């Protein structure tokens, strides 16, 4: 490459003497048209000036004598350089033609403007080539555009992820080549953007983009794009490795057995929390130490890791710790592909703890046997009473109390709202008693008219009344002989019959209607009511002496709203029951179950059973959704206080049923008996009983 003036000067040049005429000079210009000026030298060939083509043209234009010598017309304002003048200096000289002189100042060459431009061009090309080589050697992709969005620069890395060759991409619109770069946006906003993740032609890259300025004017934008696909993969692998390492640490720490991991030199790398607990050592203190140090310090009697490294096989030892504990430890070598030990993993158990566990296990076994026999006894007591479904502590206490009093033959009074399951409790008591193999008779004292109830309970003799059966008929008390009779709604029993019931309780005998001969009976009486008997006693509606006779062992069954833990088990029990009954396979959505839990259930378990059956039958889909709930539940139910209100539009029939239910519940709660409630509502007692039982 050119470095000095002598490298680029024209040595074969034309010159004229000072006495040369203009005409002769003009002939030289005509034969050397590329020349703009001719050097003028003296006899010693030293440069004196230049005769220019411009001067010649001026002479001709002014029609002056062309035989004049050039010495009077030449310009002496010229620049001469030495042969060793550097190219860099030449490029900084602003002149049309340079004279190159030798050691004696004689002219040795000429450098024209064309020569300088050629040098400049080749220098620029070389510089651009070096710049392109440097850019192409860069790992990151580089793309530059002008302010018309045309690509003016692209390196090989960028060409690779764009899929375009550099030659095809140069001068092409960036939006056609690679529209994802965001470089046009940088030109619009004139703002640099750094560290942006993007996807270009399937490559994941991070870009830094900046505007290009020239004299405070934006001329384009340049972007550097780093392919991070490999880095992403490495990062994911590293993250996966870190996750696995954390999982391994978690697994090691979750093991009850002590775990110790050491390297091929016996240096501790990992210990489990169990080893910390057993040894009394802190992992932050001993990790990185060699097992030989722990032996020397007397922390451990011997190391399974060191023995494994010596013997190159699994080793089992009894390790004594400084804490006084003993550990049964097994060390196992881990080999690489060349059969070299790279790790030793030791696992062990605290023998002291094992001995304590053995003692504890024996004690637990004794307790287990005790609880097993108690549970077996409880199951035997429950027998076949599979209809009582509960999970609440309140109902568990009720069932346990029922099983306990079933063993004695006392009279029982079961209290609780309508629908809580009083009859089920009565059945548990009967089936768990010594009378379980005999009859269990039930009667609702409020469901039978007063004039029929006496003959139903006590029977009648032949001819006792018109239509009496020949030979008479035994009453329910006689049918329950040696068994149990369940008198439901005892609060509705007329006063006239309360006297006869009191005699049964006191004397153990009954007299049939129309008869005079008392009959001995052996019956256990279980009574139930949802009424407030104390209030009825105070109002002279219930005999006080009968109340105290019945209230020997009271059992109060809590309302369903007071034991919401039982709602879900009962719901699934009824769902299974009605699925089997109707050959369906319905399920319930969570929002339905939530609504069932929040509802107050004034009708208790009976109401829940009826609603589950209604939803199973009426829902159109296999899953029961919120819309399948009765309007009463969807409206949030009702309260006992304040005026009746309707939360949303519902079918008129549903609204009427809801109002009926509210009024009947309020009347029963206020008056305590179906008879008084019916009187207050202006309907028959049987209607109250029927609607209450249908809730």
From TrEMBL:
<keyword id="KW-0175">Coiled coil</keyword>
<dbReference type="InterPro" id="IPR003593">
    <property type="entry name" value="AAA+_ATPase"/>
</dbReference>
<feature type="domain" description="PAC">
    <location>
        <begin position="311"/>
        <end position="363"/>
    </location>
</feature>
<keyword id="KW-0238">DNA-binding</keyword>
<feature type="domain" description="PAS">
    <location>
        <begin position="244"/>
        <end position="291"/>
    </location>
</feature>
<dbReference type="InterPro" id="IPR058031">
    <property type="entry name" value="AAA_lid_NorR"/>
</dbReference>
<dbReference type="GO" id="GO:0006355">
    <property type="term" value="P:regulation of DNA-templated transcription"/>
</dbReference>
<keyword id="KW-0804">Transcription</keyword>
<dbReference type="InterPro" id="IPR000700">
    <property type="entry name" value="PAS-assoc_C"/>
</dbReference>
<keyword id="KW-0067">ATP-binding</keyword>
<dbReference type="Pfam" id="PF00989">
    <property type="entry name" value="PAS"/>
</dbReference>
<dbReference type="InterPro" id="IPR025943">
    <property type="entry name" value="Sigma_54_int_dom_ATP-bd_2"/>
</dbReference>
<feature type="coiled-coil region">
    <location>
        <begin position="354"/>
        <end position="381"/>
    </location>
</feature>
<dbReference type="InterPro" id="IPR013767">
    <property type="entry name" value="PAS_fold"/>
</dbReference>
<dbReference type="InterPro" id="IPR025944">
    <property type="entry name" value="Sigma_54_int_dom_CS"/>
</dbReference>
<keyword id="KW-0805">Transcription regulation</keyword>
<keyword id="KW-0129">CBS domain</keyword>
<dbReference type="InterPro" id="IPR027417">
    <property type="entry name" value="P-loop_NTPase"/>
</dbReference>
<dbReference type="Pfam" id="PF00158">
    <property type="entry name" value="Sigma54_activat"/>
</dbReference>
<dbReference type="InterPro" id="IPR000644">
    <property type="entry name" value="CBS_dom"/>
</dbReference>
<dbReference type="InterPro" id="IPR000014">
    <property type="entry name" value="PAS"/>
</dbReference>
<dbReference type="Pfam" id="PF18024">
    <property type="entry name" value="HTH_50"/>
</dbReference>
<dbReference type="InterPro" id="IPR035965">
    <property type="entry name" value="PAS-like_dom_sf"/>
</dbReference>
<feature type="domain" description="CBS">
    <location>
        <begin position="9"/>
        <end position="66"/>
    </location>
</feature>
<dbReference type="GO" id="GO:0003677">
    <property type="term" value="F:DNA binding"/>
</dbReference>
<dbReference type="InterPro" id="IPR025662">
    <property type="entry name" value="Sigma_54_int_dom_ATP-bd_1"/>
</dbReference>
<keyword id="KW-0547">Nucleotide-binding</keyword>
<dbReference type="Pfam" id="PF13426">
    <property type="entry name" value="PAS_9"/>
</dbReference>
<feature type="domain" description="Sigma-54 factor interaction">
    <location>
        <begin position="388"/>
        <end position="617"/>
    </location>
</feature>
<feature type="domain" description="PAS">
    <location>
        <begin position="127"/>
        <end position="180"/>
    </location>
</feature>
<dbReference type="InterPro" id="IPR046342">
    <property type="entry name" value="CBS_dom_sf"/>
</dbReference>
<keyword id="KW-0058">Aromatic hydrocarbons catabolism</keyword>
<dbReference type="InterPro" id="IPR009057">
    <property type="entry name" value="Homeodomain-like_sf"/>
</dbReference>
<dbReference type="InterPro" id="IPR030828">
    <property type="entry name" value="HTH_TyrR"/>
</dbReference>
<dbReference type="Pfam" id="PF25601">
    <property type="entry name" value="AAA_lid_14"/>
</dbReference>
<dbReference type="Pfam" id="PF00571">
    <property type="entry name" value="CBS"/>
</dbReference>
<dbReference type="InterPro" id="IPR002078">
    <property type="entry name" value="Sigma_54_int"/>
</dbReference>
<dbReference type="GO" id="GO:0005524">
    <property type="term" value="F:ATP binding"/>
</dbReference>
<protein>
    <recommendedName>
        <fullName>HTH-type transcriptional regulatory protein TyrR</fullName>
    </recommendedName>
</protein>
